[in-house]
Amino acid sequence: MKLNFLFPNKFKRIGWFILIPSAIIGLITLIYECEPSFLDFNVPAVFVGEILSDSKRAFRMVNNNVLNEILGVLIIISSLLVAFSEEKSEDEYISKIRLESLVWAVYFNYAILLLSFLFVYGLYFLWVMIFNMFTVLLFFIVRFNWQIYKLKKSAYYEE
């Protein structure tokens, strides 16, 4: 029984189409700290400290710019589409490369996280944790595509 948990190949193109602009806009807003005011909304928020102190109003509306949330959702969804869509010719060797790349990405990501625990403090550590949500998928995408590129390059030279 063959189980396939991958998206069809056509989703990879959709994922790249969403991922590249989202990542670029995200980096621009991060570097220049610009958020358009038309994305300011009153959104529900939970205040954890007030829940722990048994306050009556731990859940309330706050004014927030939702650009970061939109970009975060788009980057995560599009990264999943890019990372876990089938290749045009998916075989056992590509599955092996996919698995090895995923394991490598997890090891690499947690090595960086471990170093961050030891050497990064304060608000910078919060930024490391925020980026850490995205880096496992991004490391996997980079390594997997690099390995596929090397495979295709070696197959071209063998012909």
Automatic annotation (TrEMBL):
Keywords: Membrane, Transmembrane, Transmembrane helix. The keyword Transmembrane helix applies. The chain crosses the membrane at residues 14-32, 66-85, 97-118, 124-146. The keyword Membrane applies. This is Uncharacterized protein.
